[in-house]
């Protein structure tokens, strides 16, 4: 049940962020909802990637200077969590909303 609350909170926070950006830029929300969702997902992915890179660099630095084993160098693996599931759900829903809104433009 806690995971469901985190997923719903992620959806609400992401919607609020994109809505605030749309107000700030004086654009319609439907124009930026899909790309904004992709951008936020990419941002989270880059944070996870950077965290793994920083950990590997620290472990290599510790081993090189002190000879101590600070941990193994690990390859990057994307970790799933309720926040990531909420972000992916938002991307899917926003793609459907965008496709439905601009469907007449795709046909003509």
From TrEMBL:
State if Transmembrane is listed as a keyword.
Answer: yes
Keyword terms, alphabetized? Membrane, Transmembrane, Transmembrane helix
At the top level, the lineage of the source is Bacteria
The answer, when asked if Transmembrane helix is one of the entry's keywords, is yes
Give TM regions.
6-25, 32-49, 83-105
* Protein name per the record: DUF3899 domain-containing protein
Which species is this record about? Psychrobacillus faecigallinarum
């Amino acid at each position: 049940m806690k995971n469901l609350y985190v997923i719903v909170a992620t959806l609400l926070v992401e919607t609020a962020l994109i809505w605030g950006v749309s107000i700030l830029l004086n654009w319609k929300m439907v124009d930026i909802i899909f790309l904004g969702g992709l951008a936020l997902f990419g941002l989270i992915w880059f944070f996870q990637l950077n965290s793994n890179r920083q950990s590997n660099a620290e472990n290599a630095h510790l081993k090189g200077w002190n000879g101590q084993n600070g941990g193994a160098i690990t390859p990057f693996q994307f970790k799933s969590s309720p926040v990531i599931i909420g972000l992916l759900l938002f991307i899917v829903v926003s793609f459907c909303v965008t496709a439905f809104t601009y469907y007449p433009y795709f046909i003509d």
